Amino acid sequence: MVLAAGELQAPYFTLSLILAGVYISLALAWDFSSGLTGYVNFGLPFFFGLGAFATGYLDYHGVHAVPELLAADFAVGLGGGLLFALPTLRLRGPYFTFLSLLLPLIGTDVVLAYWVPLGLPTVGYYNLPFLAPTGLGSLLIVTGLNGLWLTLLLWLRETHFGLVLRGIRDDEEALEAQGLRSFPYKVVAFALSNGIVGVAGGVYAMTTTFAGIDAFGFLFLLFPILIAILGGPGEIVGCIGAGFAVILLSQYLDLVMGPFTLILFSGLALVLVLFLPGGFRGLWRWVAS
Amino acid sequence: MALGFTLVFGVSRVLNLAYGALYMVTAYTVYDLVVERGWSVYPSAAVGLGVCVLIGVSVYLLCSRWAPDPMRFLISTLLIALFLQYLLSYYFQGEVGLTIPGLIAGPSVLVLGVSVSPIFLLAGAASVLLLALVGAWVEWHPYGRLLRATSEDPEVVSLFGIDPRRVSLVVVGVSSLLVGAAAVLIVPAEVVTPTMWIEPFVIAFVVTIVGGLGKFRWTLPASFLVAFTEVVVLFWTPYAISDVVAFLVAIAFILVRPQGMGGSGAGS
User: Fold this and answer.
1) Contact assignment for B267 to A93 by CB distance below 8 Å
2) Whether the model pTM is above 0.90
């Protein structure tokens, strides 16, 4: 969890805030698609890694401008999300969820399998450009991106599109009985959310200056889910506060407890899912009632 | 393992991601008892099976009671799998290349001109025996018929005064036993690692998709289809991309024949 940056651009606390911003992006994306529709997406690490490797690949081939890299990351995440969602969201049930769980494994396998034939020296891209010349600049960019995603997703949630997504979670069959096809809405929601995840991958790569197979790790699934649940599934805005709380706490505990932190956080996430499914908002409502 | 997964998924219709973690837990239990504590193999295997069934049933009871809706059930079982992975990784930290001894030892045997290790011989024979036993139970035993009825329509079963959750509980116990048996039989041919639970679980689910939901008879043909496809593809590509092959097989069946080889209405 501690950022393994090639060169530390900013003090540790600023880096932790940037990392929190990355996880908040992931949580926002996951909460929008999975939280609203009820279709659980475990493929976040794959699209995150895809964004990171897209950044590395383009930088390796001479594209160094940050806006272009981020735009490419969004396009790669969106396109990959579309490609995945089109065949897998045709069926209801856990098929989509299970196949999404396969994606991070596929990402790791493909990178490890084809790295050598590509003639590249290591499994990953090094010396990537920084997101901004200073740590504060990077933090501002991450904050700006999260502000953009939050505004967009909250607006979408309140439109007809968001209403349909919530209807899919509540009763998809009843929705379709009214003549509304849920499939296009699900596909668009997942493609958009994976575009956001792709950008988060690019931001992470340009913060650590490295894109490697660790970007496909399950940490980039565990923490966003924990943040989204803590903030309240489907609430979206709850991800902001929950994100800072979880990541800053995890960064501190990682220094103090080392690898035991992962056990603690996976256990905490489990307790939340089982006993506090509404997150802090649910707890507040329960206390208020 | 695929048979156990077909059983539990066919009856409960919920994806239990902690199922794969039971494979890992059994392997580590056997390793701990045999290598760390000096037990002999057979008692260690028995304890490993017991631990596997205990954890499998406990996970099911916990998640079905506190996370009854499918989304929370899915997430909670994944979190349990990750929790177990991190816990075992922490407990055995620094130890790499862990192996457990097989139930039988001896030199490789020539079968149709191919040298086969006794571990694989035993695993193959035991798998066929378990498939036959479970198949006979499901087909002819009254409780097996109840299991099939529950997988087809749990609401009708409940109208007869039978609690489908009790049937699910028995199935979870049996399927946990099967995954524990898979671990005891085949892990001696592998290395014990905290992430070893994912790939067998993936294959098991793909076999379930290929065979069809609740179509227990089609587990064996589906397993062969998936395994041979994987072997053929990996023979022609020099890289370890078995997850990609499994994914593509699953996608192909979802697109072309979503009800699986067994012809049931899998999904909608």
Assistant:
1) yes
2) no
